[in-house]
Amino acid sequence: MKISPARSMVLVAASVVLLLIIWEAASSIVNADIILPTPFAVLRRLIAIGDRRTFFRHIAASGERVAVSFLFSLIVGILLGIGSGLSSAFRAFLSPFVHTMRTVPVMAVILIAILWFPSTVVPIFAAVLMALPVVIGAVERGILEIDSKLVEMAHIFRVPPVERLRRVIIPQLVPSILTAAHLTLGLCWKVVVAGEIFTIPRSGVGAQMQLAQLSLESEAVFAWTVVVVISAALSQALLSLADHFGKRSS
Fold first, then answer.
1. pLDDT in the model for residue 82
2. What are the transmembrane regions (predicted)?
3. Residue 123 included in any domain
4. Which of 62, 68, 98, 208 has a 20 to 30 Å separation from 221 between CA atoms?
5. Quick one: what percent of the chain has pLDDT higher than 70?
């Protein structure tokens, strides 16, 4: 059942209010700001952090790493996913990598990457390795679920390969690619920030979270977490907007 955009916004607002009420109640019960600060205390610290000159520099640094890892994972994952969907031999060849990356803990990848790369590259490398299996799997399933009758009909009517790809295969792959894109974008934000927490590069939201934690500034840790949530939500909204305009123009 599809709900209207207005009702959807009301439900989202109600969910946020409920979360804040639970947070405030839990903070009152704990009664220790170093463990669980109140929402108002976090808001005050968020405003203070936002007044700093370096605030947007840290967001931009993390956003750049997310964008690089997201685009690389999406492009390479689509190509590998198509190959895996079209060729069972290539699928078997690729399966050990996909299975390994699906089971290896994110922290293990980050710790190994620290031995190989500078602090600015580790978050990107880890995000790419974690995101690639998601894209490959989604595109592979999309290829395998393509209506074979349409492909066969295009072959019978001798539709040129380029037109066959553009009018038959790609339109059926778009939903799988869009799903993979949304999943990958959120995953890249989580892994990039985790990588920054471990490596503490000069700029980055994760680095600021780690520095705040080392200083026992719980309010700052929560405030930077809110920044990550908002940044990820905005990037997801931009992706949805691009998807919407893409559908209208097609």
1. 84
2. 70-94, 106-132, 221-242
3. yes
4. 68
5. 88
Q: Is residue 15 in some structural domain?
A: no
Residue 222 near residue 40, CB atoms below 8 Å: no
pLDDT at position 222 is 92
Residue 136 near residue 81 (C-beta atoms within 8 A):
yes
Tens digit of each residue's pLDDT (9 = 90 or more) over 82-103 = 888 878 888 889 888 888 888 8
The answer to whether residue 4 sits within a structural domain is no
Task: Kindly report the backbone phi and psi dihedral angles of residue 179, in degrees, each rounded to the nearest multiple of 5, phi listed first.
Answer: -60, -45
Full residue range of the structural domain in which residue 218 is found:
54-249
- Domain of residue 207, CATH code: 1.10.3720.10
One-letter identity of residue 229: V
Cβ neighbourhood burial of 40 (10 Å; 0-12, 13-18, 19+): exposed
> In this structure, is residue 21 part of a structural domain?
no
